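Open question from group meeting: does this chain pack into something compact, or does most of it stay loose? Before anyone orders reagents, we agreed to write out a predicted structure and look at it together. Recording both the input and the output here so the notebook holds the full record.
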Amino acid sequence: MASRTMTEQAFFTLTALVGAPRHGYGILGEAAELSEGRVQLKVGTLYGVLDRLVGDGLVELDREEVEQGRLRRYYRLTDSGGIALAAEVERQTANARAASDRLRTWRPARHGGVG
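Structure tokens returned:
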């Protein structure tokens, strides 16, 4: 994932997996909470993101459990996933810093009438 920009969905999926393996619905809830509701992943979207992250070696299957007759897959962050997430955090921080620096000197245009 180093050669392409990380999507917001991938960013919050990786972030949700920091510290503990989670199953799909756990990831959905954690991503919504971490993003303060800005990222509302749908189940199909999540599993597409997970498939890409697994394919990229950033996430791996931790275990499978049967709960109430349904198979639950738990995923965990790999070392490569943690490194990729840290790099993305650094990239976003640098971008925000650059914009903040510019905005400190910005003054909105004053238009007397209709713009």
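Observations to bring back to the group:
The chain has a mean pLDDT of 91.
Strands lie at 22-23, 59-67, 70-77.
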